[in-house]
Design a protein that fits this description.
alpha/beta, Ubiquitin-like (UB roll), seven-stranded mixed beta sheet, five-stranded mixed beta sheet, 11 helices, binds guanosine-5'-triphosphate, binds magnesium ion
Length: 382
């Protein structure tokens, strides 16, 4: 399963983002280092469901590994929330950077930045702090953490490299990062000046970072966002608003549509005021709270995943029990039919005979490259 890490300075709203995305209740508070041990939970990405394109099955999905809600397919991913990082963490400041090993196998990082300027670089209360200061140094701290892994093992790497290619020995030490060996080969063979340089290039290839500009509900965040969006690709987010809306929905108070909500029950004046403020300060100006947008952008745009629907019955778009579009599988762009077969079940790959593109009813071979929203039936000897 895809794993995404949530990181940033203390009090930027990482745990609130995590809670809003997973609905797992974890401690959240306005003092630094509320989180020390990592929180792990299931979040989801969302995409228009393939059932929407095919009149016979529209709205008839019976998913097993995901959900289809009003024509949107909701597919689980794993989210990890960790302690806050501060500048100089690699020198032992704050909680240090060793806890980043909780993110070692994350495929991408969401960097939660407090755009409101109400907390300083250590996450302490402040006024008029420039969040522009928080964007770049986090990358350096991650680089130093990877450098730490390399340095601890460097003697070993050098010794082994006497008889084997250097890149292989480097790869062995960083394979926990779930990095593609070919990428390590390319980086090592193109030359590097020191282990920090090597670490930086491994991070760039291995841990893309998506910027979540949090606390956009606060008036001071708006100004900072308008200024910083010219320089950075930053998504406006209100983790707190998303959490409030999802909790209100869970309690049956509202129906939440992502870009707006409908009140279902009589609310107290305070509840109504709070929800109306979310509508005016977040949903209307920004179109959403940004939490789902951050996860979708991370998985589909930055990591380049597509959604593919494997089925057994190509006419009914179902498994053998008649469940329509039972599974939605996240595959890397460029994956082929045989990659899908391997992912669904090893016997499908071993006994592969042919596959059918269920939309066109055409036969396709093992090396056919998959497209987003493909519905594929694989025939194999059992
Ligand atoms: N206004 C506003 N406040 C927020 C938002 N997200 C989080 N906060 C507040 O910011 C404070 C810190 O939130 P946390 O989620 O605990 O922050 P964290 O980054 O996990 O902090 P540490 O675990 O200490 O590193 C809390 O008081 C939250 O209520 C938001 O979107 N808007
Ligand atoms: Mg936290």
């Amino acid at each position: 399963m895809i794993k995404v890490g949530v990181c940033g300075k203390p009090s930027s709203g990482k745990s609130t983002f995590f809670s809003a995305a997973t609905m797992v209740d974890v401690p959240r508070a306005a003092y630094p280092f509320t989180t020390i041990e990592p929180n792990v939970g299931m979040a989801a990405v969302s995409r228009r469901c393939a059932c929407q394109d095919i009149p016979e099955i529209r709205g008839k999905c019976r998913p097993r590994n995901s959900r289809c809600v009003n024509g949107t397919r909701i597919i689980p991913i794993q989210l990890v929330d960790v302690a806050g990082l501060v500048p100089g963490a690699h020198l032992g400041k704050g909680m240090g950077n060793e806890f980043l090993s909780d993110l070692i196998d994350a495929e991408a990082l969401v960097h939660v930045v407090d755009l409101s300027g109400t907390t300083n670089e250590k996450g302490e209360p402040a006024e008029g702090y420039d969040p522009g200061n928080d964007i770049e140094w986090l990358q350096d701290e991650i680089d130093y953490w990877i450098k730490g892994i390399l340095d601890r093992n460097w003697k070993n790497i050098e010794r082994k490299a006497k008889t084997r290619p250097l890149w292989e020995c480097v790869f062995e030490q960083v394979s926990g990062l779930r990095i593609d060996p070919e990428k390590v080969k390319g980086i090592v063979e193109s030359g590097f000046s020191d282990t920090l340089d090597l670490a930086r290039r491994i991070r760039e290839a291995n841990k893309p970072i998506v910027l979540a500009g949090n606390k956009i509900d606060l008036p001071s965040a708006k100004e900072n966002y308008e200024r910083l969006k010219k320089e950075y690709d930053i998504i406006p987010v209100s983790a707190e608003a998303e959490l409030a809306l999802r909790k209100a929905e869970k309690a049956g108070l509202i129906r939440y549509y992502g870009n707006d909500f409908e009140i279902l029950k009589n609310l107290s004046p305070a509840q109504e005021k709070a929800l109306q403020a979310i509508r005016e300060n977040v949903l209307e100006p920004y179109g959403s709270t940004g939490v789902q947008e951050v996860l979708n952008r991370t998985v589909f745009q930055v990591l380049g995943y597509i959604v593919v629907y494997p089925v057994e019955d190509e006419r009914r778009y179902s498994d053998k029990n008649g469940n329509v579009l039972p599974d939605a599988v996240l595959m890397k762009k460029g994956s082929t039919v045989i990659h899908l077969a391997e992912k669904v079940h090893s016997y499908l790959a071993r006994g592969f005979i042919a596959a059918v593109d269920c939309r066109t009813k055409r036969k396709i071979g093992r090396d056919h490259v998959l497209s987003d929203s493909d519905i594929i039936s694989i025939k194999a000897r059992s």
